[in-house]
Amino acid sequence: MKSLQGKIFATLVVGLGLAGCDDTPSTRLAEAGEAAVERKLDPVQVARGKAVYERHCLECHGVGGQGQPGDWRIRDADGHFPPPPLDDSAHAWHHPTAVLLEVIREGSPAGQGKMPAWDGKLTAQQMQDVVAYIKSLWSDEVYRLWWKVEQQSLEP
User: Fold this and answer.
1) pLDDT at 136
2) What are the beta bridge partners of residue 122?
3) pLDDT at 122 over 70
């Protein structure tokens, strides 16, 4: 779990730095002259992931990953963060695939959120499918920014 916490911390630092910018991801990409990354999401896998999401994730993370009313960045009365949106309006895209899968498997890090561990309740394939669905919710601009995070996570 320490590796998860380290990855989450590192990606949160990067993500908060990006979130602190006054411009939008699309503005940053346009200024940089960057084209969108080609998405290689399997439509069948995305459809399976949507079904898993709607059955197990929608109640907390909202329709289409849009989250629930209120600010997901403010701790509740119990000191936990509410479930964040999973579309590109929150921070899921700041995490590489391995971290997204680990959070689904293990649940929220202690003291952070109330997401349960899905290991033993969902298969590895279902977890991969739901991550593919979540990625399909992101705009091209955000997907490109996520792709950079993903590539950095794969570097030795």
Assistant:
1) 97
2) 119
3) yes
End-to-end CA distance of the chain: 20
User: CA–CA separation, 51 vs 86, rounded Å?
Assistant: 15
Reading phi first (left if > 0) and then psi (alpha if -120 to 50, else beta), residue 85 is in beta
| The pair of three-digit structure tokens given for residue 66, joined into one six-digit string | 């849009």
CATH, domain range 2-154: 1.10.760.10
Residue-wise pLDDT tens digits, 94-105: 999 999 999 999
Q: What is the pLDDT of residues 58-68, one digit of tens each?
A: 999 999 999 99
The structure's pTM equals 0.78
Give me the residue label for tokens 């994730």: 57
Averaged over 37-42, what is the pLDDT? 89
- Under a CB-based contact definition with an 8 Å cutoff, are residues 98 and 128 in contact? no
Cβ 87 vs Cβ 136: under 8 Å: no
Question: Rounded distance, CA 144 to CA 149, Å?
Answer: 9
Q: Which residue has the tokens 């955000």?
A: 142
Q: What are the CA-CA distances from residue 53 to residues 2, 9, 87, 120, 133 (Å)?
A: 27, 25, 12, 16, 8
